[in-house]
């Protein structure tokens, strides 16, 4: 027996003053109401109601049980009301995981704007370049950049993210400039560890799709480390323009292999479920989509070949 249903039926019988009136209020038959109360009494092992042909009355135990049930059901109603308000209005703590570089370069500027728009939300931001387990680690959502692994998570595309091959002028003057993808095999390459295949770079160009095995002095799970290594003249790297864009514009880094490009990647927000999505998650994702959209300012740093 569903005890909650039995409790609510019992309380309704007492409030209505009888089985027939309770059945009418509940929209069920009198027999169903009577059976529900009888099952509740059988479960408790005690009589809750004295019944006559004309009226009902509470037993001593029934009176105590009625008062407690009424309080419990009122508390449940209040909890459901609060939960409903939570789903309708953005409020509470929003836990977000994001890649370190993206968080520092972009989210730190946007979070104050979001909180100003939704002052009842408190954002808890965790920056890490590892792929967190959103469900197991209790995050409301995570920002992912790159190819998405198969997952039961819901993914919402926030913006495109273009990547380029680049190196410092000093490195290129010393080691030469790669002209075709296979040249990368003899260059020092600075590798992003979190790619699905870190030691294989795939390029699309005049001869179609080509893949080349790469290696080099630095392999890191953070783009800023690779950027710093490239600026120090340690090798060629493959990074999003939202990280190296200003360096390309200033000439501190130079794009190479202009005729070839890696597969474009996207920035996604991932979260556990579309069903019953909370207002704080929904509004944060929509906020990011609105700020980034399909057109971003990151590609302004790409020089034409």
H/E topology pattern: HHHEEHEHEEEEHEEEEHEHEEEH
**CATH fold description of the largest domain:** D-Maltodextrin-Binding Protein, domain 2
Q: Give the mean pLDDT.
A: 88
- Given as residue ranges, the uncertain stretches (5+ residues, pLDDT < 50) are 295-305
The total number of structural domains is 3
Kindly estimate the percentage of residues that lie in beta strands according to DSSP: 15-25%
- State the helicity in percent bands: 40-55%
Instruction: Give the name of the CATH architecture of the largest domain.
Output: 3-Layer(aba) Sandwich
How many H/I helices? 9
Largest β sheet strand count, sense and barrel closure: 5 strands, mixed
Pfam families: HTH_1, LysR_substrate
Enzyme class: lyase
EC number: 4.2.1.1
Keywords: DNA-binding, Lyase, Transcription, Transcription regulation
Secondary-structure blueprint:
Elements (H helix, E strand, L loop, with lengths): L2 H14 L2 H8 L3 H15 L4 E3 L4 E3 L1 H29 L3 E7 L1 H18 L3 E7 L13 E5 L8 E8 L1 E5 L1 H7 L13 E4 L7 E6 L2 E6 L4 E3 L2 H9 L4 E5 H10 L3 E3 L4 E2 L2 E7 L7 H14 L13
Parallel strand pairs: 3-4, 3-5, 8-11, 8-12
Antiparallel strand pairs: 1-2, 5-15, 6-15, 7-12, 7-13, 9-10, 9-14
Helix pairs in contact: 1-2, 1-3, 1-4, 2-3
């Amino acid at each position: 027996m569903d005890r909650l249903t039995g409790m609510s039926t019992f309380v309704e019988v007492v409030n209505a003053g009888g089985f027939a009136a309770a059945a009418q209020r509940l929209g069920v038959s009198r027999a169903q109401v009577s059976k529900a109360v009888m099952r509740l009494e059988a479960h408790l092992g005690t009589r809750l109601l004295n019944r006559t042909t004309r009226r009902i009355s509470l037993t001593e135990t029934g009176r105590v049980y009625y008062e407690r049930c009424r309080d419990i059901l009122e508390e449940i109603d209040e909890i459901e009301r609060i939960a409903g308000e939570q789903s309708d209005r953005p409020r509470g703590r929003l836990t977000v995981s994001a890649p370190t570089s993206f968080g520092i370069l972009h989210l730190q500027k946007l979070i104050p704007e979001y909180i100003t728009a939704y002052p009842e939300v408190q954002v808890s931001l965790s920056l890490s370049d590892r792929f967190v387990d959103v469900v197991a680690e209790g995050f409301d959502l995570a920002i992912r950049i790159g190819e998405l692994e198969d997952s039961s998570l819901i993914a919402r595309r926030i913006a495109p993210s273009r990547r380029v091959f680049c190196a410092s002028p000093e490195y290129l003057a010393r080691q030469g400039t790669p002209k075709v993808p296979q040249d990368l095999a003899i260059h020092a390459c600075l590798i992003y560890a979190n790619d699905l295949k870190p030691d294989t770079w795939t390029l699309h160009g005049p001869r179609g799709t080509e893949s080349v095995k790469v290696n080099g002095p630095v392999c890191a799970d953070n783009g800023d480390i690779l950027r710093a290594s490239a600026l120090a003249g340690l090798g060629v790297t493959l990074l999003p323009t939202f990280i190296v864009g200003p360096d390309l514009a200033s000439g501190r880094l130079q794009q190479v292999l202009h005729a070839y490009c890696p597969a474009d990647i996207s920035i996604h927000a991932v979260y556990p479920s579309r069903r019953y999505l909370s207002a704080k998650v929904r509004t944060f994702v929509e906020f990011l989509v609105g700020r980034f959209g399909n057109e971003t300012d990151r590609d302004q740093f790409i020089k034409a070949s």
